[in-house]
Design goal:
By secondary structure, the protein is an alpha/beta fold. It has a domain at 20-147 and 219-290: Rossmann fold. 41% of the residues lie in helices and 17% in strands. It is built from twelve helices and ten strands. Helix 1 (58-64) crosses helix 12, helix 3 (118-128) packs across helix 9 (218-232) and helix 4 crosses helix 8 (205-216).
């Protein structure tokens, strides 16, 4: 494994040259959660999607930790966090873990950045404790039931028994989807850091569940979509959007514009994983949006 190592206990350990952050741990009700907490200043909470982890935000955190307190956690079953057997790996459960984390750390005056599943998970967290959040940054994400045919077909395909076997047996999301969902080729050592947390079939349950959640969480998403305009629509919103993402085209920003009163848009020369394609541009946009 180039650029990454396995710890003595058999767990994945990131290369400090690529992930030069102190690992911290939070004992949630679901299990042990890994997170990073870098820098001082106004706090920013970064939430990942599938099949990523806090490593995804390394380039942004490195650029912002001189002025901001940057926090990024790994959901159960992702990154360096535990893989609890009694956990369902649903979006609702992940949101509960994030809510517990925010409360336990006593975070206030938060800016939230969510991408992919980090968007709906983060927005649910903000709705559950709105007094803690001041601003939102969303990128290539959503918070409503699937309304595009391409996404419904993707969800249906990824939920079939055949594709579930591909996800479990061949780590399909990391090996096939991630390399195609960036505009700039991932270096081998970077891709190794996305492989690392999922070395076995049993470790890929969270990755496999997320595409099933696209339809299984329809009621949860419907409730979220109904609450967002009234509960969060007054918060300033920055959209950092990769314009070359076929799954989340720029037209999806229209829903955000309709539901939020104050929206800024930064279009990125990027595909789905904007943090890999455009970390400097995102960091600059956040710095201007939040100040500090």
């Amino acid at each position: 494994m180039s650029g990454a190592a396995q710890s003595a206990g058999g767990g994945f350990r990131p290369d400090p040259r690529l992930f030069p952050f102190e690992s911290r741990w939070f004992e949630s009700r679901a299990g042990r959660i890994h997170y990073i907490d870098e820098g001082d200043g106004p706090p920013i909470l970064f939430l990942h999607g599938n099949p990523t982890w806090s490593f995804l935000y390394r380039g942004i955190v490195l650029r912002l930790r001189d002025r901001f307190r940057c926090l990024a956690l790994d959901y159960p079953g992702f990154g360096l966090s535990a893989h609890p057997r009694s956990y369902g790996y649903t979006a609702a459960e992940h949101a509960e873990v994030v809510t517990e984390f925010v409360r336990a750390l006593g975070l206030q005056g938060l800016t939230l950045m969510g991408q992919d599943w980090g968007g709906p998970i983060g927005l649910r967290t903000a709705l559950d404790q709105p007094s803690r959040f001041e601003r939102l940054v969303m990128g290539n994400t959503w918070y409503w039931p699937l309304d595009r045919l391409t996404m419904r077909l993707f969800a249906r395909a990824m939920s079939t028994a055949f594709m579930q076997r591909q996800i479990y047996n061949r780590n399909f999301f990391v090996e096939q989807i991630m390399p195609r969902a960036v505009k700039h080729r991932l270096a081998p050592e970077v891709l190794d850091h996305y492989r690392g947390p999922f070395p076995t079939i049993d470790s890929r349950t969270g990755v496999a569940e997320f595409p099933r959640e696209l339809t299984r969480a329809e009621r949860w998403l419907r409730e979220l979509a109904a609450e967002v305009p009234h509960g969060l629509g007054h918060l300033p919103l920055l959209l950092t959007w990769g314009v070359h993402d076929p799954a989340f085209p720029p037209s999806m920003m229209d829903r955000f514009r309709a539901d939020f009163a104050h929206v800024e848009v930064v279009r990125l020369d990027a595909k789905h994983y904007i943090q890999e394609d455009a970390p400097a541009e995102i960091a600059d946009a956040i710095r201007g949006f939040v100040g500090g």
